[in-house]
Amino acid sequence: MATARATRLVPARYLSLYTDYVDSCSKSVLRLQDIWENCGHSEDIVDKKMNSLFRWFGARWQTIIEDELQRLEDLKISIQLIRNELSELYKKLELAEPVQPNGLNLQQQFEWLDKCSKEADRIRSARMLQFKELRRQEQKILILMSDQQVWQGSIDYSAEANDKIPTESELALLSVHVASLRKEREVRLENLRPVIGEAREVMDRIGKVPNVAIEESLQSLSPELWDLSKANIELAGDMLDALRIEEMELCARHRLLLQQLQRIFNRLDVDSVEREKLLGRLRSTKTYQAVSRLEELEKEYKLLAKANLPQFIERLKYETKKCYEDLRAESGWRLPLDLEKLSDQGPSEKLAEAYEKHIDDLKSRHRSLIPLFKLFDDWQQMKEDYRQLEEAQKDPQRFKNRGGALLQETKKRDRLKKHLPLIMNQIMKFLDAYEADHGPVYVHGKMLREILNTDQRSGNSRSRSNSTNSGDARTPHKPVRSIPTASGSKTSKLRRAGTAFELKSSSGVKAGAGSVRQPDRTNHLVNAYANNGKIPTKSSENVNPVRNKDTSLKKRTLRRSLSYDGFKGNLSSNDLQSTRVANSGIATQASKCRLIF
After folding, report:
1. pLDDT per residue over 51-88, tens digit each?
2. Three-state DSSP state, 254
3. Among candidates 57, 27, 59, 64, which has minimal Cα distance to 19?
4. Residues 341 and 256 in one domain
5. Structural domain of 55
6. Among 261, 280, 307, where does a domain finish?
7. Between the CA of residue 478 and those of 166, 529, 596, what are the distances in Å?
8. Helix-strand-coil percent breakdown of the chain, rounded to 5?
9. Long-range residue pairs from 495-499, CB within 8 A, at least 24 positions apart, any chain
10. How far is the C-alpha of 98 from the C-alpha of 113, rounded, in Å?
11. How far is CA 559 from CA 315, 385, 499, 563, 566, in A?
12. Is the domain of 300 the same as that of 324?
């Protein structure tokens, strides 16, 4: 272990390392001693080896110290050489030598001198490069600005060869001179470059052919190669203003010619293929060449339009009539008063323009009313379907159909009853929003709102009438389970045959006997179908209601599973394939019939 005195000699930051080193040496010595004792060495031999080991440690430390001392001397010599070179360099640069800080050791002095040397070399190189670059820039600028003067200094390009470094004052003067030249050039270029660029774009857009020297310079000469005199820049600006005015006039002329040609084409009813062929590239090309071609076309087709003006007026009248038909106006509609006055004066350009404006107004109104007309058409179609259902309900022949068709009829009636009020509500909402700004909507001379209100009032009255009439109607009986025979015998049997019920007479009457009459049976069936298409059954006192419910469900299932088309071709005088008795003749002649439920 290290003693307290030795520990005080060691710097505090190395104390931990020193303690670890001493502990390691102690452990190593003890380990060597154990090894030597285990090897059987005598105590004298162990002492000799231990003394030799400690002497080797001392010599090693001495060698390290001598090496470090030699390195210290070399560092001192290097520092002195660098200091001398640095002093000479600062004299050439005409700069004050930097003052070395106090309290620096040799290594810190070396680092400080090295830093100062690098800074001096950087300053020298920067000055030489700056001087050469400034001279080069000055010459480049003065080539296009000959009215400017070259800076006169005491240093030329041979300064580097003569080992003469430019001073800061000389570089500053040259820098100011070059900067002023550059700034002046940039200002002039900034004023000229956009002028030239825009002038070229304008000339390209309008297909301008240069006529004077300034126009040729604007079109072909780069701004960097221009003579940057103020007179030339002002001349280029004036030329650009003239080109802008020229382009605006040309575009206005181009647009006007296109509009006139489109109007003429509309009058002459020129198709789209022919229009595209004539105006394909002329629409987007706004050049003198395009305008010249448009003028030729306008002159050519204007003569044709003038010759066909009466036919065009007639076509406008027909189109006006069609617009009124689209608006569902009444047959006796009339034109506005001013348009009628112009029409009385005969065909003219003013009359054609008035008709075109009126047609545009009618088309705009029709576009806004298209949703309303669609709703109204749907409402009318539903009303017509409902009327047809009501008419079909009065037809006794409808009972020849199967029960599925009657079920679909009922579903359709319910669907119409549900959707008619919804469409009516949508139409009323549309009318509320539209009529507030545009006035009432008329359909074939009648106010649409009044049509709907009238229909609604008539529908309500019919509903009240139907409810009053149905209040006295008797409740229909349940479906019959057996059909009575002409003899009134109760021995008839009901037998299921496939998906139908076959009824056979027990009276022994042969099939096809036309002389046999069954008035009771026929009248009974016909009256039953006249009463909502239901056959009266036996007294409800003798029928179990639960059994009737189950039987009805089973029969409905059988009816849905049966296709009427399969029995359509099997009808004969002895076989009645229908849910209803069609007429009394077949019923009286049939000894065997089938009822499909």
Report:
1. 888 888 788 888 888 888 888 788 888 888 888 888 88
2. helix
3. 27
4. no
5. 4-67
6. 307
7. 128, 12, 16
8. 70, 5, 25
9. 497/594, 499/558, 499/559, 499/561, 499/562, 499/596
10. 9
11. 62, 27, 8, 8, 13
12. no
Strands (E), 330-405: none
pLDDT digits (tens, 9 = 90+) for 196-209: 888 988 888 888 88
Sequence-distant (≥ 6) Cβ neighbours of residue 281 within 8 angstroms: 290
Whether the full predicted model's pTM is greater than 0.70, yes or no, is no
Residue written as token pair 């309500």? 460
User: How many of the other CB atoms lie within 10 Å of CB of 414?
Assistant: 10
**Residue-wise pLDDT tens digits, 400-458:** 666 677 788 888 888 888 888 898 899 999 999 988 888 888 888 888 888 888 888 87
Q: Are residues 445 and 546 both part of a single domain?
A: no
Q: How far separated are the first and last CA of the chain, in Å rounded?
A: 121
Tokens for 215, please give them: 């126009």
Locate 437 and state its tokens.
Answer: 């700004």
Q: Clarify whether residues 334 and 281 are in a common domain.
A: no
What are the two backbone dihedrals, phi and then psi, of residue 214, each rounded to the nearest 5 degrees? Answer: -65, -35
Pairing state of beta strands 577-578 and 592-595?
parallel
For residues 113 and 62, what is the distance between their CA atoms, to the nearest angstrom?
A: 31
Q: What is the CATH number of the domain that holds 364?
A: 1.20.58.1520
The two tokens of residue 482 are 């057996």
Judge whether 571 lies within some domain: yes
Report the side by side order of strands in the sheet with 500-504: 493-497, 500-504, 592-595, 577-578
